[in-house]
Amino acid sequence: MSCKRVLTVLVLVTALPAVLSFNLHILETLDSLKLRLTKKIYDFDPVNIYGERIPLAILYGSPMIIVNIPFDCDAKRIFVLNDLMARYSEDGLKILAFPTDEFSPKYPLDQFTSPSVIRDWVNDNQLHFMVFYKIFVNGKYTHPLWKYLKSTFDLYDNDINEDYTMFLVDKSGKPVERIPGTPWLSTEVLEKRVYSLLKE
């Protein structure tokens, strides 16, 4: 093989990862764009901790906070959300919490495998908001609802990086804000955001 051909092969081999990465970027962006354009939040029906599919269409007209939570009954943030739910439920607020163990390495990976464990935890802590079955918020097995939520703000590189990432959804079902888990909003600031959703 001539030096010119060897050089050509080396260039192609070197460039291949970048080409594949670029193509993957395009595919992921198109997938996110398709979700954003063809789906609405009311198209989803996640499974709760009692094994029931809950069509989100029944929540039409209610502002929502959708959040991923760790399995940690000592977490103060859980009780901040619980307090918000107790105070504003009569005004229509809905909080939908999705347990995930992707960011809690101190817990076993099968921590949420048994729905009965989650039910006991919810009952023991007297949580007033809706808690769903364990899901993944990133990767190949990302829950469809969370894939949709992420696509509404970023078409690419939109992974969830921590627990307590919140999506605020207005009364029409439109996700209007993505709030990262860190830094955690003060109770006062979060309450103002909720109040704005309720008054829209």
From TrEMBL:
Q: Where is the signal peptide?
A: 1-21
- Keyword Disulfide bond included in the entry's annotation: no
One MF term in the entry's GO annotations: peroxidase activity
Q: Name one Pfam family in it.
A: GSHPx
- Which residues does the Swiss-Prot or TrEMBL record annotate as the active site? C73
Give the UniProt record's GO annotations in the biological process aspect: response to oxidative stress
Q: Which domain of life is it from?
A: Eukaryota
Arranged from A to Z, the UniProt key words for this protein are: Oxidoreductase, Peroxidase, Signal
Respond yes or no to whether keyword ATP-binding is given for this record. no
Q: Which family does it belong to?
A: Belongs to the glutathione peroxidase family.
Q: What is this protein called?
A: Phospholipid hydroperoxide glutathione peroxidase
The organism encoding this protein is Sipha flava (yellow sugarcane aphid)
